[in-house]
Structures are given as structure tokens and as C-alpha cells.
Amino acid sequence: MRRGDHVVVTYFESVAFQVLKPGEAKPGISGAVEAARAQPGTRPGAAVAEVVTVVATIVKLDRKAQQATLRGPEGKTVVVDVQNPENFNKVKVGDTVEITYTEELAIDVQPAPKR
């Protein structure tokens, strides 16, 4: 690194869901974390990503409030906001859904702009 170099931080977040066929999966939770860093002798940089997947059962759909109530693997319920109202047409109470939440962070050092 040199004086004037730019440190660039990039953050990414996403949520995806998939309706599962009956018996395809039981409610559960899994996760993984991966990290990487620049090789010695190269410009500094690093990245980390976390992915959490939850399989839950839909127990209530509230179109007016744009919310769904899900029962997770330990029997607890959680109310989630439904961002896209069209998703109500893809599910019904009793369906099992797989929700994957991904979060990534990358740090990169770029050379200072030439004057």
C-alpha cells in the first residue's frame, strides 16, 4: 500500500426463496462462511461471505399487511415482510419454503489515481 491508494469496500446482500415439493425437505437450518485474502506480495484485499439457508413451513399469509408467518425447524414462528406481492400467488398455507440469505463483503486496495 502507498499513500493515496484507495480502499474500496463492496457489500452485497440477497434473499432468495424457493417453494419445495411435499416431502422434498424437512424444516431445518444450515449455514456456511467462506473467507479469502490476497496472496502475500500482492495488493491487500480480502473477502468474506456467509450463506444461511432455512427450510420453514408457511402457517399464515396476510396479503393486506404483505406478510407471511413461517414456522421454523424448532417450532418457533416468525413474521416476514413479503417484498414482492406477486409471490403470494406462488405459495399457500402449508407449503414448505427454502429461504437463502447471502451476505458478502469485499475489501480491495486500488492504486492512487495518477496526477
Categorize the overall geometry.
Answer: elongated
Q: What is the terminal-to-terminal distance?
A: 17 Å
For the report, how would you describe the main beta sheet?
Answer: 6 strands, antiparallel
Q: Please report the number of helical segments.
A: 0
Derived structural class:
mainly beta
The averaged pLDDT comes out at 91
**Gyration radius, to the nearest Å?**
20 Å
Residues in helices, as a percent range: under 10%
Low-confidence stretches: none
Task: State which percent range the strand residues make up.
Answer: over 45%
| SSE string | EEEEEE
Number of strands: 6
Topology:
Layout: E1 6-20, E2 28-37, E3 45-62, E4 67-71, E5 77-81, E6 96-110
Structure in words:
By secondary structure, this protein is mainly beta. It contains no helices and six strands. Strands 1, 2, 3, 4, 5 and 6 form a six-stranded antiparallel β-sheet that branches. It is elongated, with a radius of gyration of 20 Å.
